[in-house]
Amino acid sequence: MEGRGATAATKSAGLNKRHGKASSNGVRAGGKEELGKWGRAWEVDWFSLMGVILLLCLAPFIVFFFIMACDQYQCSVTQPLLEVYSGKATLMSIWTRAPSFSWTSAKIYAAWVSFQVFLYVCVPDIAHKVLPGYVGGVQEGAHTPAGLINKYEINGLQSWIITHFLWFANAYYFNWFSPTIIFDNWIPLLWCTNILGYAVSTFTFVKAYLFPTNPEDCKFTGNLFYNYMMGIEFNPRIGKWFDFKLFFNGRPGIVAWTLINLSYAAKQQELYGEVTNSMVLVNLLQAIYVLDFFWNEAWYLKTIDICHDHFGWYLGWGDCVWLPFLYTLQGLYLVYHPVQLSTMHVAVVLILGLAGYYLFRAANHQKDLFRRTNGNCTIWGHDPVYVECTYSSADGKKHHSKLLISGFWGMARHLNYTGDLMGSLAYCLACGGGHLLPYFYIVYMTILLVHRCIRDEHRCHSKYGKDWTRYTAVVPYRLLPGIF
Length: 484
Ligand code: NDP
Description:
Layout: H1 2-13, E1 16-17, E2 36-37, H2 46-73, H3 78-86, H4 91-97, H5 103-122, H6 127-130, E3 137-143, E4 149-154, H7 156-174, H8 181-184, H9 186-210, H10 224-230, E5 237-238, E6 242-243, H11 244-250, H12 253-272, H13 277-295, H14 297-300, H15 304-307, H16 313-326, H17 329-336, H18 343-372, E7 385-392, E8 398-404, H19 408-411, H20 415-429, H21 440-464, H22 466-474
Parallel strand pairs: 2-7
Antiparallel strand pairs: 1-7, 3-4, 5-6, 7-8
Helix pairs in contact: 2-9, 2-10, 2-16, 5-9, 9-16, 11-16, 12-13, 12-16, 12-17, 13-17, 13-18, 18-20, 20-21, 21-22
Bound molecules: NADPH dihydro-nicotinamide-adenine-dinucleotide phosphate.
C-alpha cells in the first residue's frame, strides 16, 4: 500500500521518506513558510456552547436511566419510557424506587479511591524492571501548547496487578468481602462516584483561577460553562507527581472496569449457579482492552486525552462516572439476562473482537514507533513515508513534526478508531439480540470517536496549517477506506 500510493503522492505533495532528502525547515515545495498555530485561539461558538450545556444537564441522567432500567425494568429501555408515557409510572416514582446513597457504599468507594491514590503516589514502578518490553517508571509526556514537557510516574500496570491479586486473594482465600460487593452496591456507588466526579471537576476549575500548576498552559475561553466542562488547566497537579489527568483517566475508572466485570460474573454464579459463556466472553475481551491500556500507559501520554485535552468536567466526571457505569453495561445486562451463546456465535464475536483489537493495537503501534524513532524504523518492512510539518507553540517557538502515511496510516487517517469500534461491537454482540440496552455502547463509541476524529482534525489543521491539508489530500478517508 505505502509502496505504490504513497510514492506517487510523495512526488506530488513534497513528502519525505526516511532516507530521502528532507526539507530543511518544514518549508514545503514551492512554498512560502506557513506555520500552524496551536492551542491558544479557542473561541466558543453557539453550537459548541449549546452542546456543552446539554451534556452537562443530560449526561448524569443518561447514566441513571440505564442503571435504573436494569434495576427496575430488567434492562428494558423502552418499558420505563412507555410507563411514564402511559401514566403507569412517574419520574418521581422511578426516582423514589431507586436505592439511595448509603454510608456503606461511601466507605467502600473512599477505601477504593484512597487505595488507588496510594498505589499511584507511594509505590514506585518496579514492573518495568522485571517485565521485558514493558515501559514504566518515570517517563516524559509530549510538548504542551506552552512548550513544556511534563514527567510522569508510569505505574498503572503494577497498580492493576496488585489490585487484582488482592481481589482474587480475597475471593478465594481471605473472604473479607463478597466478590459481588460492587454489583450489590451499584446504585449507591453511583451517587458516590458522582460526588467525586463533581468535586474533582469543581476543584480543578477553582484551582485554575487561584493556583494553577502551569499558568502558561491554562486556556480561558471567556465562557464559564465551556471552561468548566472542557477544562482550563492543561496538566493540573498536586505536588510534583499527582497528575489529575493520568490518575483519573486510568484509575480509579479503568482499574475498576475489570473488577466490575468480575463482580458481575460472581453475581451470575451466585444467582444461577454458573457463569455463562457470554459473560466469559465480555470479561475476556474487555480485560484484553484494559490490560493493553496499562501495558501501554507510557504510549498513552502521547494520546489526545493527555497531550491535547484540558482537564475539566468532561474528563473528571467522565472518568469517575460515565466510564465505570456505561462501559460495563454488557456485564450488568448479563446478570439480568444470562445469555448462553452457540459455539458459532462465540466464534464470530471472538474473531470480531480480536480482529478489532489487532487493528487498534497495530495502528497505534505503528504511529508510536514512527514518532518515537523519529521515522527511523520500518513499517511493513519498508522505510516509512511521511509529511514533514512545522508548527509553533504559544511561546512562539517553532517545532517540527511528521505525519505518517505508511502502513495503516496510509489507508485511512484513523484506523485505530475503526479497530476500537469493531471491538466495541463485539462486546455488544456477545449479549445476543434480546434487548437494546447493551447496544448503547457501540452507538456511544461511534458518536465519541467520529466526533473525536473531527475535533482532532480541526485541531491538527490549526496546528499544522497547509501541511495538514497536504496530508489529508494524500490520505482522504477517516475511518473506512473508500467510504468515510
Ligand atoms: P490518536 O492516537 O489517533 O492520536 C491523534 C493524534 O496523533 C493527532 O492529534 C496527531 O497529534 C497525531 N497524528 C494524527 N495523524 C498522524 C499521522 N498520520 N502520523 C503521526 N501522527 C499523527 O488518537 P487518540 O489519542 O484519540 O486515541 C488513541 C487510542 O485510544 C485510539 O485507538 C482510540 O480508539 C482510543 N480511545 C479510546 C477511547 C475509549 O473511550 N475507549 C476514548 C478515546 C480514545 P500530533 O499533534 O502529535 O501530531
